[in-house]
Amino acid sequence: MPLTWTLRERAPKHRERDGVYVFDRHAADAAVAWIAKYIRLPDGPHAGERYVLPPWQAAVVGALEGWRRPGGGRRYRRALIGVARGNSKSTFAAALGLKGLVGEGVTVPKVISAGTDRNNAAIIFDYAAAMVRHDKRLSKRLRVLGGTAKRILRQPPLSLGWYKVISSDAQHAWGDHPTRLLIDDLQAQPSRALLTALTTSQGTVADPLMVSCMTAGSDNQSVGWEEWDHALRVLQDPALDDELLVDLHYAERDDDWEDPAVWRKANPNLGISVYEDFLRQQVKRAVERPSVRNGILQNHFNIWTQDDEVTWITPEAWAATAGMVVEHELAGRTCVVGVVATRNADVASACYVFPPEGDQPYRVVLDALVPGAAIPRLEELHKISYRSWIEDGWLEVTEGDLVDERAVVAGVQRRAAQGWLVREVAYNPRGPAALRRALMEAGFTVTDVLPSFTLMSPAMNELDDLVRAKRIVHSGDRLLASMMGSLRARRNVSGDLAPDPDARVDISGAIALLLGLSRTLEPIAAQRGWRAV
Q: What is the rounded CA–CA span in Å between residue 373 and residue 351?
């Protein structure tokens, strides 16, 4: 069926655009045909087969190569492609890069793929390198330099020209004058610096092209959101930026993303490189696990979330893991104790995490202390009753209005005297240095564990899995349950989780649990053959 070279329904039809521009159907057809002739799929079950562009990608190529200015140059000098993960945007960008290197007739083509870091930028390059190796004709014309070089060089009889990788932390971006730019994961760019450097460097190029690919994110102050928002406005009024070709595939914020009919809106490659069974699994995870919901909406349905805070473990899910924890039966068992305390905190928490032995689940015990003189102030501040936790034995009162560091150490010593084998203390280094020193002087091995994305994300994901599988047991501690229910998670651009430090109530027990769990993952990770942190 002949292609009309129009984008999806929400995009303006090209034939309704400014009559100054001329559409060259032969050039559009030739560009699509060039990719099918020279490009082979780089990986997956169809690796080595011809890359026949799906309709949505063929429409983009046709628009980029077919629409021309009165002088013959390309009309669209920039393109923004927004699509959910798994829809071959990196593969598509790699094909565009190779076409820019050998299929454009440019005397000295210079192609750059850029990303958030060198590894990210290398994704498109690695696909392009594989495409070269899969085709004998390209292999004769191009030389791939792998390793740290990451370059593809034109060889005689072709003139000079290259394809290289650059990252957002590169300082030499200002010296390049690329004829073609490929930017992957624009939503994750930390600033506009690289984009500005590369865009302005094309000012001396006669007929430049910059193609940016992205998936939705969560930061509405980011470069990615600015470009996305601009693209939406261009779709409504193309005259705002007549050099920008926009192709956004996304579900609306109010769409029912559990409905399979919605999935194709963000996944134009549905049935080609992304499949309904996979999306059905992701929907199930999003429904069952609030902590991963925003990430799934962003990555698989291309929906921007309003912020980076996500609901984590629900109170109902945590309550379902309550069971019998007989403390004297823990004698002789190894544990890690997470300790969180600051001088002005309402509660100092020591959470004992017992790794599983055999088929047994994890077991968790929380010891928590509160300065007695601080209770009225804390109850007024947080609008909750500390006294009920005290009366039920979940919270111990100490003297004064500050955390009693000696009482914290004495509590750990008391547990050790019961026969609990404290392997180490996972300590938040933002706590008092005196408490850390006192724990070490008492003979305990203290490991600093900062509640950062890098260290907390493995523990949070593991705890989420343990709770859902009911492979962790606590004694029904109502204080710990309250802290777990109050904990919110932050998600960074890489999808890593960390506790939100701006909780309205004390969550020290939940943080202590995560600190302890993070250290128990080390030996388990070694057994499973992966690194926990």
A: 23
* Residue 69 resides in a domain: no
Domain that holds residue 509: 315-528
Q: How much is the pLDDT for 297?
A: 92
Q: What residues contact 425, with CB distance under 8 A and at least 6 apart?
A: 336, 337, 338, 339, 412, 439, 444, 445, 446, 447
Cα(316)–Cα(120) distance, integer angstroms: 39
Residue 4, pLDDT above cutoff 60:
no
Query: pLDDT tens for residues 427-451?
Result: 999 888 999 999 999 999 999 999 8
- The rounded distance, in Å, linking the Cα atoms of 375 and 265 is 53
Find tokens 């388990």 and name the residue.
524
- Helix H or strand E encompassing 363: strand 362-371
Let me know whether 187 and 321 are in one domain. no
Rounded to whole angstroms, what are the CA distances from 87 to 56, 93, 228, 386, 463?
A: 11, 12, 18, 52, 31
Q: Domain tally for the chain? A: 2
CB of 503 within 8 A of CB of 487? yes
pLDDT tens column, 345-388: 579 999 999 999 988 999 999 999 999 988 888 887 777 778 88
Taking the C-alpha atoms of residue 366 and residue 371, their distance in angstroms, rounded to an integer, is 17
Choose the final residue of a domain: 196, 217, 249: 249
pTM: 0.64
Give the dihedral of Cα atoms 496, 531, 300, 48; nearest 10 deg. Answer: 140
**In sequence order, what are the residues at sequence separation of 6 or more whose Cβ sits closer than 8 angstroms to the Cβ of residue 26?**
none
Residue 505 CA to residue 487 CA, distance in Å, equals 9
In a domain, 282, yes or no: no
pLDDT of 167 above 90: no
- Do 229 and 320 lie in one domain? The reply is no
Copy the structure tokens of residue 286: 């999003």
Residue with tokens 């190569």: 65
Question: Are residues 370 and 518 both part of a single domain?
Answer: yes
